[in-house]
Amino acid sequence: MDYFLTEDQQMIKDLAREITEEKVLPVRAELDEKEEFPWEIMKTLAQSDFFGLYIPEEYGGMGKGGFELSLVIEELSRGCLGVSTTYAANALGTYPVLLYGSEEQKKKYLPDIASGKRLVAFGLTEANAGSDAAGVRTTAKPDGSEYVLNGTKQWITNGGEAEIYTVIAMTDKSKGARGASAFIVEKGTPGFSFGKKENKLGIRASATRELVFENCRIPKENLISKEGMGFIVAMKTLDKSRTGVGAQGVGVAQGAFEAAAGYAKERQQFGQPVISFQAIQHMLADMATQIEAARALVYSVAKYIDSAAKEVSKESAMAKLFATDVAMKVTVDAIQVMGGSGYMREYPVEKMMRDAKILQIYEGTNQIQRNIIGQVLIKETAKKR
Ligand SMILES: Cc1cc2nc3c(=O)[nH]c(=O)nc-3n(C[C@H](O)[C@H](O)[C@H](O)COP(=O)(O)OP(=O)(O)OC[C@H]3O[C@@H](n4cnc5c(N)ncnc54)[C@H](O)[C@@H]3O)c2cc1C
Question: Which terminus in the chain has less CB density within 10 A, N or C?
Answer without folding.
Answer: C
